[in-house]
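Before the break, one more example. Copy the sequence into your notebook; we will annotate it together after we see the structure.
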Amino acid sequence: MHNSRYPGFQPWILLSVGLALIGSPHALLADTPTAPPTAQQTYNEAQAAYDKSDWPTAIKGFASIARPDEGGEVSHAQGIIRARLAQAYAHERQPEEAVREAAIALKGLGPHDHIERALMWLAIGEAQRYGLAMPAAVEAYEKGLGAAQEAKSAELVASAQIGLALCYMTVDPAKATALMDAVLASPEASSYAKLLHAQYYDLRGRATLNLGQARQAIPFLTKAIALSGGISGTKVNLIQIGIRGDAAIGALLTNHEESAREYLAWTGAGHMKSEEWTSGFGSPPHCSEAADIRPDDVVVVEFSIAADGHVLGAAPIYASRPGTLGIAFAKAVKGWNWNPERIATLPSFWRNMVRVELRCDSRPSARGLSDPFRRETLAWLAEKQLSPEDLAPREQGYVASNDPRLERDDVAAIPALLARLPIETDHKKVVALARLLTTALNKAGAPAAARALAMNLEPEDPSSYSTARHVRTRASQVASLEQTDPGSAATAWITLEYALALEGDGRFKDARPILERVLAYPTDVVGEHDPVRDVAILHLALLQRRAGDAAGADTKVKAAGLTPAQCMLFDVRPVVSNNAVYSDDFPEEALRWGFDGYVRETFNIKADGHVENVRTLVAYPPFVFRSGAERSVAHFRYLAPVIDGVSAGCDGHAIIVRFNAHP
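Here is what the structure looks like once it is written out:
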C-alpha cells in the first residue's frame, strides 16, 4: 500500500506544495544587508525545518527573526518570513496565531507573491477546518483560491476547491454541489489527472448524498470508483479508501447491500484484527432541542487515531440534515481517546481513516455508583501533596505498562496503579498490580473509598469468568471491607454490588437479605437519597414484585419518595433475564465478506421487562450492522425497577453488541 501522491493529503488535511515553486529561499534576505549574519543562518535553519515539516522548530526560528510589528510598513523579506511563520502555525493547528501573522505578512508581500499568499491561506484554511471552524475556513480557502488562480497554479487551485467543498459538505451541500458542477464543467476538466478527476466526482456524489438524494448520487460515485482505478488491486491510497467508503454509504442508503459490502471490503472497515480497539469509541452528543440535535438525526464522522490514542482530526462525511449537525457530532468525536496499547497492533494506514455512524443520546449522563468514591479518592490523593506528574495518570486514565511506578507500593505510585489496573489485559500482571495497590493503600492509611474503588477497578480473569465466580469475588471484597472499614459508605456500596452479582447469577432469594443489609446503614452514612440506597430500595422492590408481592413493592418505593424522574439521574442497574444474540441477526452479506462489527444500542425497558424504542447510537462500520443489532436487542428481556406501574430509570438504557465473523 502506498500513500497519495499528495503528501499529507487526507480528507481533513489538505495538500502542502513545496517551496521550490517560488525559488531558492536562501536569497530572500539579500535585500537587507544590515541584517547580522546570524539572522541569515537562523533563517536558513528555520527554512530547513519548514521543508522537513518540523513546525515547532520552524516557528521558533522564524519568530526569532521576525521584527516587532509596530503598525508601519513591512519589508518584502519580513513579509516572506511572516508568511512562512503563518504557515508553520497553521500546520501546528494554531489558527489564531496563523491569522495574526498572515495580517502582517500581507503588508510585505509583493504583487507577484501569489503562490506565497496561496500557500499561506490554504494552510490557514486547513487549520480552521481541522478545528471545525467552517466559516473561517471558507474565508481562508476563498482567499487561497484567488491567489492560486492569479498564480495559475492548477495544483493549488485544486487544493482550494477541494477544501471549500469539504467545508460546505454537510453545512451547505448545495454549495458543494454547485462548486463541483462548475469544476467538472470547466474546459480544464479534460486535462485533470485521473485521481484528481475521481476526487471531484466523489465530492459531487458525497454532496448529493448530503442533499438527501442517494439514488442521484450513485452515478457520480460509480464514476469516481472507475476513475480511481476500480476496487481491485493490491495497492491503495487514502483517497481511494475515501471514495470507496462514500460509494458504500450510497449503496447502503439505496438498499444495494451486496455492492456496499464489496466496496467496504476494500476499505479495511470491519477487518481490524483486534476487537479491543473499539473500546475507544466514546459518546455521541446528547439530543438537544436548543442545539437542534434530534433523535432521528444520523451522522457519519471520519477520523484518524494517533499512535498515542488521541483523535488527530474529525470531519463529518454525511449528515441526514444540512446545517451545523455534522459539526456537532465531529466535535464530540474529537474528544474520544484510545488506550495506545489497544491500537498498537492496528496498521497505521487503516487508523488514518475510520468512519463511524452516530446518533444522539437521549438520556442525560447517569451517575455511576462508583462516582462519589472516585471523587473522594482523588480528593484524598490531592491532600497528599503529590507532584503533578504523579497525579496525572489518575486524571488521564492511562499509564504505560512499563512505567516504573507500577513496581512500587508507596503513596506516589497509587495514581499510576489505579490508572493501570482496569486496563491491564494480562491477568498475572493484574494480580501483581492489585497486590501492590493494596499494600500502598494500607501503608498510606487510605480511606475506605479508595480501597473500595481499587476493588471495583480490578478486572476479573476473562478466561475463567462466570457469574458464579463474580459472586464469589464480590463476597470476598465485602468480607475484606467489613474487616477494615465496617459501617462505611464504601462498604455499603460493595455490599450492594454483591447483591447485584447474586441477581445476575439468578440467586434472587440470596440477594434479598444482602439488599436489606445495605438499607440498614444509617442515613448519616448512606444518605436518604444516596444512589446506593435508592438502587437497593428499587431492587428489593423488584424482588418483591417478582415474588408476587406487587403491593408491598409499591409501598416500599413510595415510602422512599422515589420518582421515575429521580431514577433517570443514576444507573438503576436493571437485571438481565435474556440477552441472547442470535446468528440469524448477523447480516448474511457481512458474514460472507468476513466483517466484524460494533454497535452500541439504546432502548427503553418497559415495566413488563420488554424493550421498546430501540435506537443505534454508535455503529462501525456505518450502516452495516445496525439493523441486525436492533433486531437482536428487540428480543432482550429484563427485570426492571417499577414505580406506579412504570419502569424507573430504564429509559435510554445502553448496551454493546459485537458481531464477530472470526470468533
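The radius of gyration is 29 Å. The CA atoms of residues 274 and 345 lie 8 Å apart. Try to locate both features in your own notes.
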